[in-house]
Amino acid sequence: MTIALLVTGGCSESTAPDITTTTTTSSATTTVLVPPGLETFEIRQVTLVFDDGGRELLVAVADEAPERSQGLMRVTELAGLDGMLFEFDRLTEGGFWMKDTVLPLTLIHFDETGSFVSSVDMEPCTTADCPSYYPAGPYRFALEVVQGTLERLPVRLVLP
Predict the structure, then answer these.
(1) Domains, the chain, ranges and CATH?
(2) What is the pTM of this model?
(3) Could you say which DSSP state residue 65 is in?
(4) 17 vs 101, more confident
């Protein structure tokens, strides 16, 4: 299934070893280094399409409540991943916070039709009093990448 999300407009070294995950598709086998703590997450390739071309990203997928609650907490490096994709069953307006998240992240929100809702840069927070970052409106998908990964926002996001 392909979902196109149209858009107009997530460090210290880990002391734990990286986990290697092998993903097999009908045409190829890919080995990806997965950071400690994300071993149980589905790994998926998505394509960000810009006006002048596309860029493929490997992301951990957070599509269940426990995964969405964990997010990139305590992850000190993304190893072979480019970010995390949050998928919700329906529109939500919930905010994200950076409690125990040490990487500065950019969060991009998309609604159920794939239209861009908003984006925000989020700063690491290791205290109990972390701010929440809310979207400009309801969203169904959110993509976290490390700040500076994207020079500009994608025109659309294509999911397999």
Answers:
(1) 3-159 (2.60.120.1140)
(2) 0.80
(3) H
(4) 101
